[in-house]
Every structure is written in structure tokens, then in C-alpha cells.
Write the C-alpha cells for this entry.
Amino acid sequence: MASSVTSVLSHDMNESKRAAINFYKDGPDGWAARGTALHKVLENKLLNKPITEDEKWQRWIDPLVNFEIFDGAEVLAVEYSICDPIRSIGGSFDFLIKTKFGETLLGDLKTSSSKKAAQRREPANAQLGAYTLMLNKHHPSLVIDNCCTVILGPDICRIEKEKPDNCVEMWQDTWIKYQLTQEDW
């Protein structure tokens, strides 16, 4: 694949924001370590495997493993890689579940360093729109009721839901802007 969903979404990020993100990325308490650990927690929870992550993430782990949308859910996919071969783009989403209420949710987990940051965190709607389009191409009979971003911080876990059509529209807008920046366009 020539591009990833993430690279398309961040193609026009200003340099100061990119620098700030990179500044906090590395190290044992950086966002990369936190994200990796907590995504593994979610994967293990959904697959009914033991959760063995470092206790330093406990304030994030407790609200995640006790989050109500996962209770009694049927797991359809976890850490699922998908692509659009025509556009030569790929990515992987965090989960696809059918809740105990019968709602099919396509989801992405986003972690934050603080409760305040988790309260302000924007949903990953355009990203989920990309995955929705790819799922529609590869699994046309699958009906996604809502796209959701699970936003996790210390002592907080919340969900932002959006209709798949709205997410697809956001992705399409981003894709067009990205295409206009490409040399061979």
C-alpha cells in the first residue's frame, strides 16, 4: 500500500502540532507506550484473554475493562487490517462488535494522558469513515449501525458515536484534500 489512513489524515498537520506530538511520543510513559499497552488491554478483554499490563496504567485499565459497551458484546473483529487496493491505502481498526442491544459498532480506541485531555479529545470520525468504506467494499452485507471512538484517560472512559455516512463523508473530504497535495494528481 502506498499510504495509510493515518498518513492521509495527518498530511496537512502543521509543524508545531507535529513537533508537539513527537515530543511526547517516546519513553516509558510516552503516548506510544501508553497506546500500545492499552490497545493490548482492549484486545485481550475482547478476546477473553488475561490482562497482564503494567500497573502504572491501572487508572486507564480499570475504566476500559469496565466500560459498559463491551459487556456482553459479540466480537466480530479485533485489530483488523483492511485496505482499499484501488487507492492503495490500508489501515487497521481496533474493534467491530455487536452490543448486547444488537447495535453493530465499528470502533477505535484513543488514549489521553489526563482526564482533562480525554474530555476534550475529538472523535476519530474521518478515520472510522475510511474503515467503513473499506469494510463496505470487502464485506458488503455488513451493516454498521454506528462508528464510535472510545476515548480513554486516567479514571475516565467515554464514547463518541457518529453515523457511518457522516464518517464516510468526512473521510471523503479528507481524501480529496490529500489527493490535491499529491504530485501525480
User: Anything to note?
Assistant: Strands lie at 3-4, 74-84, 89-98, 104-111, 146-153, 156-162. The CA atoms of residues 10 and 18 lie 9 Å apart. The helical segments are 5-9, 15-23, 31-46, 58-65, 115-120, 125-138, 164-181.
